[in-house]
Design goal:
Elements lengths: L1 H25 L3 H57 L13 H30 L8
Amino acid sequence: MGQPKAMKIYHKNSQFLHNLIVYSLTSLSPAAEIYDEYAERSRASRRVLSALQEAKEMELEKNLVEESLHKVEEEKEEEEEEEEKYGDEDGEEDQPGLPAEELNKRVEEFIARINKQRWLEAKLLVHDDSSPEDMQF
């Protein structure tokens, strides 16, 4: 008769242990609650930090735009002062230009140089397709 009593005690203890494990797995432990609170605070602080960073970036961009506008205004004022001192630079009567013949000559020379450069590049491309031994300049 001693053995069935031991089996009953073992069965009751194992049932208790089983219930304890199920309860601990299904209920929230304090560690899980602490972690959830930590995770929520971490997310909130990241949102605050990103909002602060965005505000700083907007402030820096605003300052940069203001500085650029200020520099442009200063340069404009300097140009106006120089024009007042030295007169209008756009006036053709103050600065004699190149004679039309000289200007035409320079334009034709420039076009000739460009055409020669294009011809040499085309020749180089044609020779790149063939063997290097055939190239002669």
